[in-house]
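Folds abound. Consider this:
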Amino acid sequence: MNQDLQEKKDIRDRIIEVAGEIFAEKGYQNTTVRDICQKANTYQLSINYHFGSKENLFKEVLLKTYQDTLEANLIERIKDLPLEKQLEEIIATRVKSIFSKGRDGIHFRIILKEIPQNYNLVVETMRNPLLNYLEEVKKVIWNLSDRKLHDFGLNYCASLIVSHIAVLSMHEKARVLLFDTKNPDEKQLEKFINYTKNFVLAGIEKMKHEDIL
């Protein structure tokens, strides 16, 4: 890659990184292109050149920050683990990412901030990555069920894992009710992960003997 192309890539990457930090802090509506330019030490023309608009930049931020999460390549990393351990890692990775205060939690902080105001934009952007991820989760569940669960049962279990965790991350009252604090510590999260895993495993064991599934 020649120097000019490398410089353009560096600028583009810096804009995405800075925009992600600001979107996570202030939200999409309250973030201006000027805010991003000032922090990235660049010009609005650069944003127009690389992304075309603030909305397109936001979409790129969502996709890039998701690629940077542990969840994005999780299935490949856990494929050789025992099935129950795979399920535990699926739950643990999402829980720890959502509650992370570090850079690895930026994607989920943006998502949680934007879902109430920009639901359609978030869903439109993340639809394919999420569906692909859910398909991989469903394969783990299918194998855990001795390949007996299909369709509704698989969709239910996979959606339960995602939505169950999302409720806690989005609703402070739910966290306080369960953990007696809005900021659960590592020990509390580990307990939640273990309980969720056992709940899902018990459900799979029960459902795989039901004729309707």
Remarks:
- Residues 167 and 174 are 7 Å apart (CA to CA).
- The domain at 68-207 is CATH 1.10.357 (Tetracycline Repressor; domain 2).
- The chain has eleven helices and no strands.
